[in-house]
Specification:
Length: about 90
């Protein structure tokens, strides 16, 4: 995250997450780059809980991967007084 005044720019790769805490509500700002999330985004039916748990560990976009380019999702956010960002 890079901030300049009230502007925040969030660069995201992999399964690291950024959340915004505003007005007592915690909102996820990023989407995981995992096989499970790719399947959900494609509208594929979810597998069993164990299958989804395993697929949520498979990164399809990450820093330090062995093949292919890395794609960075970049988001712009206007911050308000009292906002908090959580990175994990």
């Amino acid at each position: 995250v890079y901030t300049a005044g009230s502007d925040a720019f969030i660069g995201h790769v992999g399964d690291s997450r950024a959340y915004l805490y505003r007005d007592s509500v915690l909102t996820c700002l990023t989407r995981d780059h995992t096989l499970a999330q790719s399947m959900i985004d494609a509208g594929l039916p979810p597998g069993s809980a164990n299958e989804m748990k395993m697929m949520s560990r498979v990164l399809v976009n990450c820093l330090g991967g062995q093949e292919g380019p890395v794609y960075v999702d970049v988001e712009h956010l206007k911050l308000r007084n009292g906002d908090r960002l959580l990175l994990c």
